[in-house]
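Take a look at the protein record below with the fold in mind.
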Amino acid sequence: MADSNTVLRIAELDFDAIKTNLKEYLRNQSQFSDYDFDGSGLNILLDVLAYNTHYMAYYLNMVGNEMFLDSATLRNSVVSHAKNMNYLPTSVRGAVAKVNILVTDPDSSQSTLTIPAYTEFQSQQVDGINYTFVTLTAQTATRNVSSNTFTFNNVTLKQGEKLTYNVSVTNSNTKRRFVIPNANIDTTTLLVTVQTSTLDSTRNAYVLSEDITAANSNSKIYFLEEDASGQYAIYFGDGYLGKNLANGNIVQLSYLASDGEGANKANSFTLVSTLGSPAISNVIVSSVSAAAAGSSRESIDQIKFSAPKFYTTQNRAVTVNDYGTIILKDYPNVQSVSVWGGEDNDPVQYGKIFISMNPKVGYAISDTEKARIIDEIIKNRSVLTVTPEIVDPKYTYIKVYADVHYDAAKTVLNNEELKSLVRSTILNYSSTDLGNFNSTFRFSRLQKQIDTTDTSFLSSDMKIEVQQRFQPTPNVGKNYDLDYNMPLKRGEYKNKLYSYPTFQVIDNSGITRTAYLEETPLSFTGVDGIELTNGGSGYTVVPTVTIAGDGVGAAAVAKIVNGIVSSIEIVNKGSNYTTAIVSISGTGTGATARATLSGETGTIRSFYIQSSTGEKIIINPNVGTINYKTGKIRLNNFKPITVDSNPNYASGILTVNIEPDTSTITPLRDRILSIDGDDPISIQITMDDQS
């Protein structure tokens, strides 16, 4: 008889646990109390039972997971769940470029010239590949009779190869559903026409359904979906919601098969198709904007992220999240989007919505692309009273100085190989944790990753600086605002703000100097408080408090209790104080106090090094100011003749570097944090062998 306390544990999912549970159950039966399961044929049967149970548990778990969008792993399951939210995964998108075309034709017989739709152009090589671009619409220009030229401005070229697919409607296809036989279709270029029959060439254009509430039984609309094979399928109405197709109709699908993001950055094009009759050979194509916005089809993770947000958005832009969702859906060339209302902008601008996008290629989106995004993606979904404005992201670069202590006896790698490992760790942290809006830099996290890079590493010391880059206008005095958007550390004599590279400036004597910027050490401003050192006595009326120093505007009032000065309160901190002396005058005697200077702001000065003596000579003691609390720097009437060339940054770029006063940096709005791997001095590593 079985032990009543022995039961099959149905919660076991591991194969070995299932088999052990089965053995224990059988051993507690009287018939098998002394049976050797491991050495018997029954052991094979137990394996089969355990495998079967394990398989069933696995498959049921998979089925359970695939029932929900969050846990689904198969693409067709994810797409199916997204379809229930009316979400269509984004297809491959061809890159878009703008060009001007100048055609010279001495034959004056034609007054106009048309570039037909799908005229082909070839790009220069991008990573060794020439890409085909085409016009999507016909372009017509009028002859300039004085020069015999035709000028086509701002012509849009789309990357891809035009394909056409015809299919007849028959009784066997009652659902009127057709799979498009190309996985690289750019669905934004899909054109659908329906011909009545082989005998009747009448054609009707059908458009993608975007609002079923406006559809009726005669609406010439089609629907699009991604099917289980990963290809796109098109289907038509049923006679109630959209016009139903009739047997014998011929459906023609024209579209571009595109190469996605591969063609991005193409910036030079030549005409491939024949233009005019007879053919015109003198055609000059000049680029207006490089190809951009090419992208691969949406991944599983992207669909999981976007579908619920798109469902909430309902294809209209009301909240800031709506704008971000729509742009990510229809302009997949960006890694991330940050949107904020004008009421949250600095400065405040009511009636506006600000959008900043981090492109997958480069650092900013061209003005041409910004205009296209607003006109084609945003305006028809935006609230009429709100004006959208796209602004470039602002980058704050982080420089890392790492001193790594290691035991050489615990590794076979040499010093340079270990440095390379540390550098890879830092760059990997940048690519995974930084580079997007709202990506937070955490000092401790990066240091921990450095410490665990190799088993020979004992510990590390790390310092970071934050950097702003700007391009001053040569020989023109201008104000420049650099916003680090974080608290900055007040400098001392050794560790303080500095600029790189050097720049040329004219000093007060009219001599050109090779100059630098630096923070004036301990340059404070304002009176933060007044500390009472002696209350004195005999004060029958409130005494007068006077603050003298090299600043202006500081004021304070005293309070008395029983003839003694009990406290002094600041009513105006003033500004530009590096020294301040407090005096108290009135009917009593003996009251004294001292001022506490604020460390909220500091001063930036310029200097050069006297070559003969190595002495630092100040050129301008007040080039600008630093607000340590807000992280804002202003350079006033800054007028360099030129910025000296250097091997690390583009020509004309000047950098300003300073330590942050926080170990966790969280950017706001249009700010992106990055460790620039292309800057050879952004990561500086020292290896310290302690073996």
User: Anything to note?
Assistant: The longest strand covers residues 457-470. Helices lie at 15-27, 42-66, 75-84, 300-313, 320-330, 367-378, 415-433, 443-451.
